[in-house]
């Protein structure tokens, strides 16, 4: 698979054209409850849609392997969920004790910050609560706020195509969530106090899902998870860890819609995700 497979519909490529991926199903105005996680069970072309203007201590062992993409300087980050869980907070300790359904209910009714006054609904996440791959973005946008599902619209279609390129699909072995569960007004950047209030929810989602790998997209998601202020360019092409869960970082799909020249770098990030998932699956056979 070559980087030009990330080309948009109107860009000429040397590859033979293929049909666009079918549109994602329209989500209902309120996302349905996600079933509780049970004990763990055991490159097509990417078409860019037109844009409208502690894993726990029992985590699987991590086996070092060279990534297909070259690093861009800076160390590999080893972080923990402790700063996200904010264990010194009574509220955070309560969140850390919630099961899946209770956690979803807590997010839906959350009033911990001012975003509850401007949201249409909180966006818990979507997909398989036993997911092998957890995709973490930044915050809901206008369409996500309306539908109650993360990554819909043009950026969501691109994310679906990116996942399909490595043999993954929303709702199957993937769970998609954001750092913030409510939309910031005007799609502005998340504020520190908002991240502080929402981070315990994400930490608990990670603890309950126990994914094999996390793919963090966008600066705020990456810096929140890895607890670093390093730029995205210095963190790409490497394997990082959060509570011994491998973390790969990449560009947010919305960014790629505005910056198609970065499609080759995005493809290398996806190859690293795919390679690591295959290696982790092989260690359990």
From TrEMBL:
Q: Where is the composition biased (Low complexity)?
A: 11-29
Q: Which residues form the Uracil-DNA glycosylase-like domain?
A: 124-271
EC code: 3.2.2.27
The ranges of region (Disordered) come to: 1-52, 58-77
**What sort of enzyme, by top EC class, is this?**
hydrolase
Keywords from the UniProt entry: 4Fe-4S, DNA damage, DNA repair, Hydrolase, Iron, Iron-sulfur, Metal-binding
SMART domains according to UniProt: UDG, UreE_C
Top-rank taxon, per record = Bacteria
Question: Pfam families, alphabetically?
Answer: UDG (PF03167)
Its UniProt entry gives the catalysed reaction(s) as: Hydrolyzes single-stranded DNA or mismatched double-stranded DNA and polynucleotides, releasing free uracil
Presence of the UniProt keyword DNA damage in the record: yes
Q: Which Gene3D superfamilies match?
A: Uracil-DNA glycosylase-like domain (3.40.470.10)
CDD domains reported in the protein's UniProt record: UDG-F4_TTUDGA_SPO1dp_like
Kindly give the InterPro entries that the UniProt entry links to this protein. UDG_Type-4/5, Ura-DNA_glyco_family4, Uracil-DNA_glycosylase-like, Uracil-DNA_glycosylase-like_sf
What the entry lists under PANTHER family is as follows: TYPE-4 URACIL-DNA GLYCOSYLASE (PTHR33693:SF1), TYPE-5 URACIL-DNA GLYCOSYLASE (PTHR33693)
Query: What NCBIfam families has UniProt attached to this entry?
Result: UDG_fam4
Task: Family membership, please give it.
Answer: Belongs to the uracil-DNA glycosylase (UDG) superfamily. Type 4 (UDGa) family.
The protein, known as: Type-4 uracil-DNA glycosylase
